[in-house]
Design a protein that fits this description.
This protein has helices spanning about 5-10, 20-30, 35-45, 50-75, 85-95, 100-115, 125-140, 155-160, 165-180, 230-240, 255-270, 275-285, and strands spanning about 140-145, 165, 185-190, 195-200, 215-220, 225. The chain is an alpha+beta fold. The protein is elongated and about 70 Å long.
């Protein structure tokens, strides 16, 4: 964007010590939208005033966050939003310049590797065994539980780059891959445990008054380990946890992305990043707006 007299005048006011003046200037600059970011970046690079640099970064963050808010508002309003698109939006929350093409190309590469090995004569267990071998061994994705999980394990582009993720991010990758392969694996929320489940058929789970297919087995997205219904029942009994009908129903894409955002929000709260916590709360609230 070309520097106008008004933009230059606003930039000159960024060093004013009065917080109210800064808030007014910030609001005026944000009205220009993301097109003004190159101007702000140039100012950040050329000024030696640390206060101005800090304020410039704050305005750039607000502009990028505003863009993410618009993206999530559209995503939550869509009739059938893409799970992958939702995960990319989460990445853009902290990494606005995330390379979507790299994410999509990597997933397509994993899909092609799986597709070459799969055929119509394989049992569900054989299908998942092949996918696990390719996903966890060939591509070397490694999962960490919530206690060990680092903040970058929530961001899909970081997971693609490092091959390290947590149960949320790896479940999104795994389910996206299975969707491309037309394999009925979906995320479910067991009590205190986020899992994937292989259902006995593809199904539109969100159409009312239709019977839901049954689960054949469960998949831990962190390790790829496969569990039977008996294994799950033993787990529930051991920890005195109660499951209801919703426990064995796939989460919608809205639920999955909201769960990711909630977990990320709690992580930032633990880190003392309260402004980021509040921003994620705003994103979650878009689901009901």
């Amino acid at each position: 964007m070309k520097d106008t007299k008004e933009i230059k005048a606003l930039f000159h006011l960024l060093d004013d010590p009065d917080a109210d003046i800064f808030q007014t200037v910030s609001a005026e600059l944000i009205q220009y939208g993301k097109n003004i970011i190159p101007n702000l970046e140039n100012l950040w690079e050329t000024t030696e005033d640390e206060r101005v640099q800090e304020r410039v970064l704050s305005i750039i963050h607000k502009l990028n966050f505003q863009d993410v808010v618009v993206g999530f508002a559209r995503w939550f309003a869509a009739e059938k939003p893409s799970l992958l698109d939702g995960a990319i939006l989460i990445s853009k929350f902290r990494f606005p310049e995330v390379d979507e093409d790299t994410i999509r190309k990597t997933i397509k590469s994993i899909y092609q590797s799986c597709w070459l090995e799969l055929n119509n004569y394989l049992t569900p267990l054989e299908q998942v065994t092949i996918i696990n071998s390719i996903f966890y061994s060939m591509y070397k994705f490694k999962g960490f539980n919530q206690e060990e999980s680092k903040i970058n394990y929530y961001y899909l582009h970081e997971v693609i780059d490092t091959r390290h993720g947590n149960n949320f991010s790896l479940a999104i990758l795994y389910q996206t891959l299975c969707e491309m392969l037309d394999i009925p694996v979906f995320a479910i929320q067991l009590p205190q445990q986020y899992m994937l489940a292989y259902f006995d058929t593809q199904h539109d789970f969100f159409r009312k008054n239709e019977p839901v297919p049954t689960i054949q087995f469960y998949i831990d997205p962190v390790t790829g380990n496969i569990y039977t219904q008996n294994d799950v029942d033993v787990y529930l009994n051991k920890y005195k946890l109660v499951a209801d009908a919703n426990t064995y129903t796939p989460l919608s894409n809205y639920d999955i992305i909201a769960s990711n955002l909630e977990a990320l929000m709690h992580k930032y709260k633990q880190m003392g990043e309260f402004e980021l916590e509040e921003e994620i709360l705003q994103l979650i609230a878009l689901r009901t707006s």
